[in-house]
Write a structure and sequence with these properties.
This protein is mainly alpha-helical. It has 2 helices and no strands.
Length: 69
């Protein structure tokens, strides 16, 4: 009896998932290219910003470590 209930739940879950996937509105190619370009550009800018901050902090720490009293 438990097997039938478990199978019913799995089928019900997959049916629900299938219904939700049908509600998805996929973007057209032009929108997809624009959004992908934006994500890539922002990722590159943030990567460069993080690298710059890393360099500045490393340089600052090196200066502090090499200070002799």
């Amino acid at each position: 009896m438990a097997e039938k209930t478990e199978k019913g739940l799995k089928k019900s879950w997959f049916d629900g998932m299938k219904a939700e996937f049908k509600k998805i509105v996929w973007p057209d190619q032009k929108t997809l290219v624009k959004q992908t370009g934006a994500v890539v550009a922002v990722s590159i800018v943030l990567g460069m910003l993080i690298a710059l901050l890393d360099f500045i902090f490393k340089y600052g720490v090196d200066i502090l470590v090499n200070i002799s009293f």
